[in-house]
Design a protein that fits this description.
There is one protein chain. The chain is α+β, with helices and mostly antiparallel strands. The chain has 2 domains: about 35 residues, no CATH class; about 130 residues, Alpha-Beta Complex (Nucleoside Triphosphate Pyrophosphohydrolase). Helix content is about 15%, strand content about 40%. The protein has 3 helices and 12 strands; from the N terminus they run βββββββαβββββαα. The strands form 3 sheets. Strands 4, 5, 6, 7, 9, 10 and 12 form a 7-stranded mixed sheet that branches. Strand 5 and strand 6 form a beta hairpin. The longest helix has 13 residues. The protein is elongated, with a radius of gyration of 19 Å.
Length: about 190
């Protein structure tokens, strides 16, 4: 396998904190490009890690949430997800988020790996989980800023949500693609 980083290392010549903006803390780094020795100011948003959960019921249904998203200004279909609290393990966060957002629980958890949330300017990771044999055991415990509709979809219904563009959160899509065979059939393919 080829080394993904054969380039010379970048040097941080200066760093200073920026504003605290709710979910993130800004940091400004002055980075020197080893290719041309140019130094420029960059922005890094520091934040907690995230979790995404593909929860599947004993009947093979996928548990999804529909909620309004402030960033896009519209309601989206997604997998349950959320922030990892300070000093909380990713598995504990995944279990908590699934329970709080959907009321579903399970003891059957499989880690699917972790990905950089957006390496261009975020320093956090998203931990992906499969929750097998999830069953509704509790009521939801939503944050004041949440209004979530919980549904169970068949795999065909999930595919249709994706085809229709309703299921468009990138990290939810990645988690779903890691778990399910979601090869979508398009005209000419």
């Amino acid at each position: 396998m080829t080394d993904p980083s054969p380039q010379l290392p970048w040097e941080c010549t200066r760093s200073e904190p920026g504003p605290d903006i709710l979910l993130f803390r800004a940091r400004y780094n002055w980075m020197r490009n080893p290719r041309n020795n140019t130094t420029f100011k960059t922005l890094v948003l520091e934040g907690n890690d995230w979790v995404n959960v593909a929860a599947v019921t004993p009947a093979g249904k996928v548990v999804i949430v529909r909620q309004f998203r402030f960033g896009t200004g519209r309601t989206t279909s997604e997998l349950p997800a959320g922030l990892v609290e300070p000093d909380e393990a990713p598995l504990a966060a995944a279990q908590r988020e699934l329970r709080e957002e959907t009321g579903y629980t399970t003891e059957d958890w499989i880690p699917l790996g972790s990905v950089d949330a957006n390496a261009a300017f975020l320093n956090n990771q998203c931990h992906l989980w499969l929750a097998r044999n999830a069953v509704k055991t509790a009521e939801t415990a939503l944050d004041a800023s949440e209004d979530i509709l919980v549904e169970e979809l068949s795999l065909d219904e999930l595919r249709e949500e994706i085809r229709a563009g309703h299921f468009s959160n990138a990290l939810s899509l990645l988690t779903a693609y890691k778990v399910f065979d979601l090869r979508l059939k398009f005209r000419g393919m």
